[in-house]
Write a structure and sequence with these properties.
This protein is mainly α. The protein is built from 6 helices and no strands. It folds into 2 domains: 54 residues, Serine Threonine Protein Phosphatase 5, Tetratricopeptide repeat, CATH 1.25.40; 57 residues, Serine Threonine Protein Phosphatase 5, Tetratricopeptide repeat (Alpha Horseshoe).
Length: 111
């Protein structure tokens, strides 16, 4: 049942994206659904598309970084967290800055 519900969410989000193909929020939501379904590859593609389209979509930095950590790419994740911190600070989003900084500090402890 859970798998069916997840696929239903994925299909609905795909439908919305057909109407608004560059909507970063929809792509981000779909990427998170892919992660829940165990599909990191499609999630990564969507996160990367978001960054190509809008470098200021701050949430992508944290979630793509976490995905990279999970996929054993800590150096790439650290670089992404740092880049996201710059974007967050420039935007005045200190909450996101703090989350990215915490993720980076935890990652650096493991390296």
């Amino acid at each position: 049942m859970i798998y069916f519900c997840r696929m239903n969410h994925i299909e609905r989000l795909r439908d919305f994206l057909r109407v608004s193909p560059n909507d970063c929020f929809l792509k981000h939501a779909l990427a998170l659904e892919y992660i829940k379904a165990g599909d990191d590859e499609n999630a990564r593609i969507l996160f990367e598309e978001n960054l190509e389209y809008d470098k200021n979509y701050i949430a992508t930095y944290y979630h793509l970084g976490s995905l990279l950590v999970r996929n054993e790419q800590p150096e790439a994740a650290a670089a992404l967290y740092r880049q996201g911190m710059i974007v967050a600070k420039t935007a005045g989003d200190m909450h996101s800055f703090g989350e990215l900084n915490s993720a980076l500090m935890l990652l650096e402890e493991e390296l």
